[in-house]
Design brief:
Layout lengths: L9 H10 L6 H10 L15 H15 L15 H14 L17 H10 L11 H5 L5 E3 L5 E3 L2 E2 L2 E2 L7 H14 L16
Length: 198
């Protein structure tokens, strides 16, 4: 089956064509029959059979074509940093014209750079202190950070919405800058990225 025979969003198709893909692999063809309709699939096949492209194309197409997936996020877990970087590279090629943001996140960077970003660049005060649970209930915004590559908004505490129950403006600023660095649009002056040798 040719990719042109699938009902794909034009922006997704543009990335596929630029990647040089014309024919679906057998695994991709079987996967797309279910996944493009929004059905869950579990696929197991050898390396190099097109699994990564199959799930990336599905994600991009659903996000752009199906209203119920608008403003959603996709989390792709990989067992190694190297594979995370590879998936990100494929996503940047296939999703180049979608307008969707892509980044790979893995550990290895400490908290110091995050604090510097918040204090010096975004002019947001950072204080380390113990707070009681009631203070969490009235917070405008809360987010967790594990490494500099993890900025996870907290939507609720004890089933009580934090702020508007979604990502707040500070979290958005930090996430946007992080993705800009990951995509090479901003310099990594915080030392967030770790070189992965292939």
């Amino acid at each position: 089956m040719r990719f042109t025979e699938l009902t794909l969003h034009p922006s997704v198709m543009q990335g596929i064509e630029e990647a040089g893909f014309t024919e679906c692999t057998p695994v991709q063809e079987m996967t797309f029959q279910k996944s493009l309709a929004g059905k869950d699939v579990m696929v197991q096949s050898q390396t190099g059979t097109g699994k990564t492209a199959a799930f990336l194309i599905t994600i991009f197409n659903l996000f752009l074509s199906d209203e119920k997936y608008r403003n959603r996020k996709a989390l792709i877990l990989t067992p190694t940093r190297e594979l995370a970087v590879q998936v990100e590279q494929d996503a940047l090629v296939l999703g180049k014209y979608t307008g969707l943001k892509t980044g790979s996140f893995y550990g290895g960077v400490g908290y110091v750079t995050q604090d510097r970003l918040l204090r010096e660049d975004l002019k947001i005060p950072v204080t380390e202190c113990n707070i009681n649970r009631e203070m969490l209930y009235i917070a405008d915004e809360i987010f967790f950070t594990g490494t500099a590559a993890e900025v996870t908004p907290v939507a609720s505490v004890d089933k009580i919405d934090v702020g508007n129950g979604g990502r707040g403006p500070i979290t958005e600023k930090v996430q946007t800058l992080l993705l800009s660095i990951l995509q090479g649009r901003s310099p990594d002056k915080y030392g967030w990225l770790t070189l992965v040798n292939k």
